[in-house]
Write a structure and sequence with these properties.
By secondary structure, the chain is mainly α. The chain is 70% helix and 8% strand. The chain has one domain. Helix 1 packs across helix 6 and helix 2 crosses helix 5. InterPro entries: Phage_holin_4_2.
Amino acid sequence: MRFVLVSAITAVAVWLVTLLPLDIAVEGGDGGTWARIGVFLLVGAVMAAANLLIKPIVDVLSLPIKILTLGLFALVTAWFMLWLTAWLTTLVPWAELTIGAFWETLLAALLISLITAILTAVVPGASKR
C-alpha cells in the first residue's frame, strides 16, 4: 500500500515539474483526463520502483564520489534516476517521459526530489515510520 501512495506522490511531483518551463514532458494519454492521470501514475510508479530498487545500489557505488564532493553528487544520482525513468518509459507504447538538456533536467530532478520529500512528510502513511 505504501508503494502505491509513494507512486501517486511521485506522479504529482512529476506533474508539477512538467508545468514549469523546464525541458520535461510526459506524452501519452490522449483519450481524456483519466487516461492522462493514468500516464502520470505509470511514470510515478516507474520512478518510485527505480528509486526503490536501483537507487540504493547506485548510492553505494557512488559513495566515494559523494564523499569527495561533499554530497553534491547526489544531484547527479537524482538526475540518473530521472534519466532511467525516461528510458524505461520508452518501452511502454502509450506513455513516455521525455527529458532534455542536462542542466534543466538536473534542476527538474532536484525539484522532483524536493516535492516528493515534502509530500511524503505531509501525507499520512507515506513515510517509512
